[in-house]
Amino acid sequence: MPRDPYDVLGVERDADEAQVKKAFRRLARELHPDVNAHDPEAEDKFKEAAEAYEILSDSQRRATYDRFGHEGLRSGGFAPNFDTFGSVADIFEAFFGGGGPLGGSGLFGSRSGPAPGGDVAVTVELDLADAATGSSVDVSYDAVDRCEHCHGNGAEPGTPIEACERCGGTGRLQAVTRTPFGQMVRTMECDACGGDGRIAQQPCRQCRGRGRQVVHRKLQVDVPAGIADGQRIRLAGRGHAGEAGAPPGDLYVLVRVREDERFMRDGNDLVTLLDVPAPQAALGAALEVPTLNGPSEVDVPAGTQPGDILTLRGQGMPSLGRNSRGDLRVVVNVLIPRRLDPRQRELLEELSESLTDENLHPEESMFARLRRALRAHSA
Q: Among positive and negative, which fits the CA dihedral 231, 237, 241, 245?
């Protein structure tokens, strides 16, 4: 059973025409599917509101409904069917002449003027070292560009361009649809001139009158130092050409940074693993670790434990757009000897017998170490 149109629009039964129209405009903003895409029932709700508006905005139908309800309207021949329109935008055009209930050529109105060019996206790959220092990469892509032969007007040079006879040079056509509740006018793009309002008498032989053609472009793109995997570089005006002189779109370069087997990236910090034999971890040692600038020496303090982190300041990735760098965090992996020969086993047994609680007692408890590791991870 259809809902009460007064309830649908949220107006009182004595509401005047202006109040009814205002209520419908408010609902249009809320229910239009283009701005309410998360609600799959938005279009049906809008059509319900449009039907309620049609009933209450017409004094004769409103009087019939007030006396006899929906049954009275049906017996009187009122059976709105918005499915005859191509979209909700068409319903807006039918009600409000193409401008929509919000007025003008705004969010719900029809497009006016030449369409701007579309954006283009390409992907480039580079190594971590190139991402750290910055790099220039070559990109190639296909894009729609202005036809150089006709300079974008679609006509063979030296031939005339005349106003479209079908639309009178407006680029738009109006179609009248008869419905049980009156005539409705739809405005649509002219099918003869494609909405331009002009027609070339002799189309350009190069682009066949389109004024644009596909070209292959090659560019050198500067990738800034410190860029991360998945970030994009925008080059304004390097996308597809717009229609009839409208601005071109942009080129977006998606940067993919290849994995480096030596490092993991954590923001601007780099993390690497250093294998340290157990005797050297106990005695202390100076060992080499990889950095972006080549091997570097790091001091492993005596008594270093598995999982301890040694930090080399300023040896990480540069900060994008700033004069600073991250750090290199060296995670110690203590190697326990295996496959011992008799002499090695004998030496380790002697060492084991000589160890006391003072040698083995950790400087902090296990839970303190866990808390410190978690804090470092969250930071």
A: positive
The residue count of the chain comes to 379
Question: CB neighbours (10 Å) of residue 83?
Answer: 7
Q: What is the pLDDT of residue 79?
A: 56
In whole angstroms, what is the distance from residue 53 CA to residue 94 CA?
13
Q: What does the mean pLDDT of the chain come to? A: 81
Q: Using one digit for the tens of pLDDT, what is the confidence trace for 4-32?
A: 989 988 999 988 888 888 888 888 777 66
Answer whether 23's CB lies under 8 Å from 17's CB.
Answer: no
| pLDDT value at residue 86 | 43
331 pLDDT band (50/70/90 cuts)?
Answer: very high
Q: How confident is the model at residue 227 (pLDDT cuts 50, 70, 90)?
A: very high
Q: What is the rounded average pLDDT of the residues 289-306? A: 93
Burial label for 277, CB within 10 Å (0-12, 13-18, 19+), is middle
Tokens of 98: 């193409």
Contact between 52 and 25 under an 8 Å Cβ cutoff? The reply is no
Query: 298 — phi, psi (to 5°)?
Result: -130, 140
Distance, CA of 205 to CA of 191 (rounded, Å)? 21
Sign of CA dihedral 192, 197, 203, 204: negative
Whether the pLDDT of residue 72 is over 90: the answer is: no
Listing DSSP states for 294-329 in one string gives S-EEEEE-TTPPTT-EEEETT-SPBPTTSS-B--EE
Query: Residues with Cβ < 8 Å from 165, sequence gap 6 or more?
Result: 192, 199
- H/E stretch holding 183 reads strand 182-189
Distance CA 213, CA 245 (A): 14
| Token digits of residue 131 | 């991402």
Using DSSP, how many helices (H) and how many strands (E) does the chain show? 10, 15
